[in-house]
Amino acid sequence: MKRFFNTRETIVKEGLEGLLRSSYGADLCRLDGAEDIHVILRRDWQKERVAVLSGGGSGHEPAHAGFVGKGMLTGAVCGQLFASPGVDAILAAIRAVTGEAGCLLIVKNYTGDRLNFGIAAEQAKALGLKVDLVIIGDDIALGRTDKARGIAGTVLVHKIAGAAAEAGQSLAEVAALARKVAGSLSSIGLALSDCNVFTPDQKPRLADNEAELGLGIHGEAGVERIPMANLDTLMARTADKLEASLPDEGNFIVLLNMLGSVPPLEAFALLDGFSRTSLAGRTEWIIGPAPLMTALDMNGFSLTALPADPAFIAALAADAAPRSWPGLAHFAPVATLPCPALPDTFVDAPSDDPILRKLITTGAEALLANEARLNALDAKCGDGDAGSTFAESGRQILKALDSLPLASPQKLLATIGRLLARHSGGSSGVLLSILATTAGHDENWREGLQKGAAQMQAYGGAHAGDRTMLDALLPAIEALNAGKSLAAAATAARAGADATRSMKARAGRASYIPADQLADIPDPGAEAIAVLFESLAKSL
């Protein structure tokens, strides 16, 4: 597996140094003077209020160092990857931040963390410092037991305790509030993969057809392997499991946490999927989706529920300096505005022509049948969606077939132009819309196609020989304009598409790719045009 790192032994130190140099760490500093002590602190801390410390193994970023700042943590004690920090590091952090108001330690429920933070707390007390400790065990995957793991809900304790400390509450008050939050939290995760702790030869635990429910943030096996399914099914399975652990009454604050490698588009789609679950009906506030407590590169998410207690809401909504904190928002229906009126797509009355109906149906079905093959071609020289773009055009035309003015080529082309402009994406879709729209202005459809091809070149900037779909389309249109048959046009389109195998790309995404990577690969747009004309010719 490819990763950005020098050595596993140095990645934590290098990552923390990078944090301090970044815009996220502008207000932070670290303790210096000991090789194995990785403690990140607020640079402005004056020991006037209760200090709030947390920490644990690294690999969960932005937790814990990313939440150091006014309104959240005073400091974070960072261990090596998935390993608790040592007693000396924790004691150093306590001594660095603790004044007369005292210090609260927020600790996830893992043996190493409990032992090391607990011993450090006792040593600090022996030195005359006021220290209290709260253990977080919010994972409900194995039921509500004293062995429950601390996972993403820990960050909500950071935020609420940090807000209370910033407001000037006493150590007893801050600790009591933190314990109330900890006792009210419920979390569970689902992932499509485990995580890799910078181990090049690690084999994946899950098969392609499996997901895992209730796994830990260190890659620990989940309570249940379930079949891979679509987003809504996986989200409902997770939300239902979480809801079953909650009180029967009351509304909740829900955190949607990303575990490491979920792209933002999928993260937002997961929240949309959550809106269709039963738990969504009891959700009053939302936090995220955001990566708060990750597991390196794990491809998964977790849900955390916390009762919508007014004190919790106020603390979560309070200002906080850390840029990794995403904030709190009402969970409400999507806000909308009426869409302005757009020109009608179907201006002309529908009419029929059996030959044109057959040609259009055959051509659209050919584009659909070749979607995967064209996408595979485009993946070698573009962004892998050319087949889907052409197929979507085919789907829209088939869907609208009974609304088309088939008896009038001029009106038909104009209608198809409007249809593609509205429903087909990508450069191919809009270029074909320009072709059809321009052609629809001319009573002679052959001459109209010629003019449409000229407009495609004017707007798109590509020309014959640039290795685009024009290299198949232009010869086909020229054959038709010369009065030749569809078979002749198909032959011309095929010759043009094949010629792109040896052309230098001068337009489109392929123009960014080294020429040797395109050798003997036809342009997918030109191939789509050739397939389209070949299917039309065979249908007659």
From TrEMBL:
It comes from Asaia spathodeae. It comes from the Bacteria. InterPro entries: DhaK_dom, DhaL_dom, DhaL_dom_sf, Dihydroxyacetone_Kinase. Residues 354-538 form the DhaL domain. One of its GO terms (molecular function) is kinase activity. Keywords: ATP-binding, Kinase, Nucleotide-binding, Transferase. This is Dihydroxyacetone kinase subunit DhaK. Pfam families: Dak1, Dak2. Residues 7-325 form the DhaK domain.
